[in-house]
């Protein structure tokens, strides 16, 4: 018992000494918090290329056609609504804004450079950044989340995306997202 208490005491002393010594420059400070928060989300992404008010528009394409499956070199700019359910009229919770482009020569592979910004509840004005290859032919696509703002500061995480509905004649799609994000208090 005494030995245990001494061990705990030594642990606390060395810990606080370490915490103090980390302040040895005036321009930087390290604080150990150790508290991680894991957020899981489920929402739907509506990518509309057709109609008079598309949310995804082509902004660049190769000078000569490339004969590749997915149109290697095509670049889209998007402002896609995110909703709570698969129905486009279900509650709007945010927007995915940014670009995706066909980056694979021999199969479908999209490079996704997107900001997912939220407008609902405590997540209003928080966002995360996704930067990843989207292997669009796979049933479930895993993509990396590399950062964020607001409640998603210091985010690390991943998204699992699965197409809910797709119209091959227009390219319009509704994609379900399951997102897991770790942040720190
Ligand atoms: C997303 O989560 C729902 C509910 O837990 C589950 O039914 C679905 O299979 C998940 N989809 C993916 C692509 O992980």
UniProtKB/TrEMBL annotation:
Domain of life: Eukaryota
Pfam family, one: Dirigent
InterPro entries in UniProt: Allene_oxi_cyc_Dirigent, Dirigent
GO biological process terms held by the UniProt record: phenylpropanoid biosynthetic process
Endpoints of the signal sequence: 1-19
Primary location: secreted
Cellular component, GO annotation: apoplast
Keyword Chaperone: no
Keyword Ubl conjugation: no
Subcellular location per the Swiss-Prot or TrEMBL entry: Secreted, Extracellular space, Apoplast
Keywords: Apoplast, Secreted, Signal
Function: Dirigent proteins impart stereoselectivity on the phenoxy radical-coupling reaction, yielding optically active lignans from two molecules of coniferyl alcohol in the biosynthesis of lignans, flavonolignans, and alkaloids and thus plays a central role in plant secondary metabolism.
Quaternary structure note: Homodimer.
Family classification: Belongs to the plant dirigent protein family.
Protein name as catalogued: Dirigent protein
The organism of origin for this protein: Mikania micrantha (bitter vine)
